[in-house]
Amino acid sequence: MVTDVNQKPGQEAVRQIPAGLKPFWEQTVREFVSLSEAPIDPPMQERHRIYSLLLMAIIFDQWNGNKYGDTGDYGQWRADQLLVDSPNIYRGGTYQGHNIAALAVDAEGRVIDYEFNHNDLFDSSVEHAESRLVRRVFALNQIYDPWELDPRNERHKSGPPERQRRRMFATAVTERAERATAREPEVVASGYATLLSDVTVYTSLESCAQCTGIMCLASVKEVIYLQPDDGQFLIGNIMRRATKAQSMGFTSPRPIAGEEIGFEFYRDLAAGNEDFTERVAREPFHTDGVKTARKPSVTSFLCTDSAYQVFERASSRLGESSLEYPDFCPDRPPSALTNRKVLAEAMDFRAYVKSVGNRGTSHRV
Ligand SMILES: [Zn+2]
Q1: How far is the CA of 189 from the centre of ligand 1 (A)?
Q2: Quick check: pTM over 0.85?
């Protein structure tokens, strides 16, 4: 058996197979990417669906399909988004980034924050929603500075320990992490390592390698994605399997596809993108008379009327949600919200985001 990554027959092994890959070394790719996680109970599925609807509603409220500008010709792909019919001008104004967003929720069920893709705003291919969100949540926690708790402060008496300085999110460090801290005091020194360990990220499109990597290093608990993206080659599954098979101190978040939480719009978005991919070579997505866009691209699909309509349906569903498990709440933490309160939280957060009107976080810093 080969024991070295680059070993040729007859050569001596130099580099051992990394622990995270060893159990899978002789397996098929299919076996490697297949996750064996516990199924999600129906009441928890309902909870996840509420945040998923909220995320789609936030995107719908801030919709901008002008990937190649608000003029030119998007053909029949965006006929419903035409503002002026000749010359063609489309709704949405300046394109800041793709119609992709992510939402972070803590263990109690409270929304921490959300972010959009801002590739165009920053003229960059890495300003993705999940990576922006994770950096933002860390930054928010750093801004939070409860100086009364600092032992260096003269007025400090016998307040909570130093590590609580890092606990902006009331439930981010659970009893589980507290116990771990008691056993391994060095965890205190790296509070950021566990800060997001109870945070769930909802993302409207399956995460790329960058975002999976950032969420893995941030110890995000799980990531629920509302549309598959084959272009990311199941990197979330790969990272999950490899990190769980080793003991390096961090585990990639469990990727959860929308279908695992019974989210009907997952199928609609997947089918819509498949249809777009199949037709776009024959029916160009956009032309400005000089350049014509014919390449299949999921971010182009996310500008089309067909995608818009799915987001519209999801956003109106949020307001109509009738709950099967209104009194459900997870066992931990004891302060967790019920599904009924989660729905109220989601509706309130949507209204708040709408009232502020920013495409991206509602905070100004
Ligand atoms: Zn990404």
Answers
A1: 29
A2: yes
Rg of the chain over Cα atoms, rounded to whole angstroms, equals 23
What whole-number distance in Å separates Cα of residue 21 and Cα of residue 17?
7
CA 239–ligand 1 middle distance (angstroms): 14
How much distance in Å is there from the Cα of 204 to the middle of ligand 1? 11
Decide if 46 is inside a domain.
Answer: yes
User: Could you count the other beta carbons within 10 Å of the beta carbon of residue 115?
Assistant: 26
Residue 34 lies in a domain: no
Number of domains present in the structure of the chain: 1
Tokens of 204: 């409207």
Give residue 140's pLDDT.
Answer: 80
**CATH number, domain at 286?**
3.40.140.10
pLDDT per residue as tens digits for the range 313-361: 999 999 887 899 999 999 888 889 999 999 999 999 999 999 988 887 6
Owning domain of residue 316: 39-355
Instruction: Dump pLDDT digits (tens) for 285-303.
Output: 999 999 999 999 999 999 9
- Provide the token pair at 73: 């010709």
Listed as ranges, residues in the chain with pLDDT below 70 are: 1-6, 143-191, 361-365
Distance 307 CA to ligand 1 centre (A): 19
Cα(208) to centroid(ligand 1), Å: 4
Answer whether residue 44 is part of any domain: yes
Token duo for residue 259: 């279908």
Strand partners, 202: 103, 224
In a domain, 243, yes or no: yes
Under DSSP, the state recorded for 338 is P
Mean pLDDT of the chain, nearest integer: 87
Question: What is the distance in A from the centroid of ligand 1 to the CA of 94?
Answer: 22
